[in-house]
Amino acid sequence: MSDQLEQPPAAIAGLGLTDVGKVYDRSATDLAAEAVRLAANDAGLAVSDLDGLLVSPGTQGAPKLSLQKVLGLRDLRLLAEINALGASPGVMIAHAAATIAMGGASAVACVFADTPLKPKGSGRDAFGTPRSGPRGFAGYHAGIGLVSPNLFYALAARRHFATYGTTSEQLGAIAVAQRAWAADNPAAQFREPISLAQHQESPLIADPLHLYDICLVSNGAAAVIVTSAERARDLAQPPVDILGWAQAHPGRVQHDDSDFGLRTGAADAGPRALRMAGVRVEDVDLLQLYDCYTYTVMVTLEDYGFCPKGEGGKFVAEGHLAPGGDLPCNTGGGQLSAFYLTGFTPLVEAVVQGRGQAGARQVDQRDVIMVSGNGGILEHHATLILSGAGR
Fold first, then answer.
1. For 208, which DSSP code?
2. Which of 48, 201, 359, 389 is the most buried (most CB within 10 A)?
3. What's the sign of the alpha-carbon dihedral 10, 338, 246, 95?
4. pLDDT digits (tens, 9 = 90+) for 98-119
5. Candidates 212, 293, 295, 340; catalytic one
């Protein structure tokens, strides 16, 4: 039996994005409620029209299922907390689309919010220091100095460098390209262009990762409304169809002879999502990739098949991803330059581009949009295939 969908079962009909960045006076729950209200209004729906709610908590442990009460929602047909870290949005969209296709709900809000930044803290304080020390076998990594995500991802990037000859300058090409895209995104936290020389001169945070190789830290919330593809065509915004999805959860693979740093869950989930959508990698017009680090963009490009394994560095240095390139990628600036709302950062830009509402940064072709999510230390992956073509 073919795993290809004959028709898109669902579409994204509403989008809500709160203020992002140094937003200090709001709780994650408050921001999440605002994002859902914005998304419903954007779709032309009342909040009371929602019969499904999927929440993804951030670093502060909220929002929780109690968001239902905050929003005044009653008699929901779908309510769940989903946490696959940065892969959560892809998991949520897939769950919402499948539920709608089976008649289990008709309009589902998917929402994420987080407030890791504090007025007197820093990005390093938000993610770099564990709340408590690891115990038992979990302390093994701490014992050899691996105490933050930056260090784990530096280890992965260094493995890629050693195996394939990848260079810091090649990663820098990704940071420069995404900052160029961010220049035309009013919601981006950083819009000033940067050069490759500036990337190389930026502080070395965890060798080989420089400051500009690492994502921002942001407070804020984002939500989308998923409904049937048929119904979405009668609502207020151009629909963004959900053509395919897949997950892969390789777990932590840092054992002897593992492929840690060289191959990710994208190599498994990407081809399956494309098959569900009935398209090939050559058909992809636009990429929105999870970019917690420049390295993750490069390795995801390889694992999705946009270039041979080991040639990701050379590929990104050729300028394919930048404005004017033949494979636009992270056109809002991504997590490196715009804002960090985990996997909702690439999803939000995919919806904006899919609708044709990206203004000066709008790309011409948006028939097939590939969106990735990545969680943990390359432990969780989700791929979505979307379309703004209104098939």
1. T
2. 389
3. negative
4. 999 999 999 999 999 999 998 8
5. 340
User: Lowest-pLDDT range, 61-70, 78-87, 132-141, 318-327?
Assistant: 132-141
Q: Active-site residue among 290, 293, 295, 304?
A: 290
What does the mean pLDDT of the chain come to? 93
20 neighbors 220 (Cβ within 8 angstroms): yes
Query: Sign (positive/negative) of CA torsion 359, 362, 368, 372?
Result: negative
* Burial per residue of 312-338, b for 16 or more beta-carbon CB atoms within 10 angstroms, e otherwise: bbbbbbeebbbeeeebbbbbbbbbbbb
Closest listed residue to residue 211, CA positions, set 184, 180, 172, 185: 172
Residue 224 DSSP class: E
Q: pLDDT by residue (tens digit) across 353-368? A: 999 999 999 999 999 9
Q: What is the pTM of this model?
A: 0.94
Per-residue pLDDT tens digits for 290-315: 999 999 999 999 999 999 999 999 99
User: Cα separation of 182 and 184, whole Å?
Assistant: 5
290: annotated active-site residue: yes
Give the CA angle between residues 231, 341, 315 to the nearest 5°: 95
Q: Residue 340 and residue 10: Cα distance in Å, rounded?
A: 26
Q: Tokens 């262009």 appear where?
A: 193
Tell me: cis bond preceding 63? Omega within 30 of 0 counts: yes
Contacts (Cβ under 8 Å, ≥6 apart) of 48: 72, 73
- CA 247 from chain center: how many Å? 13
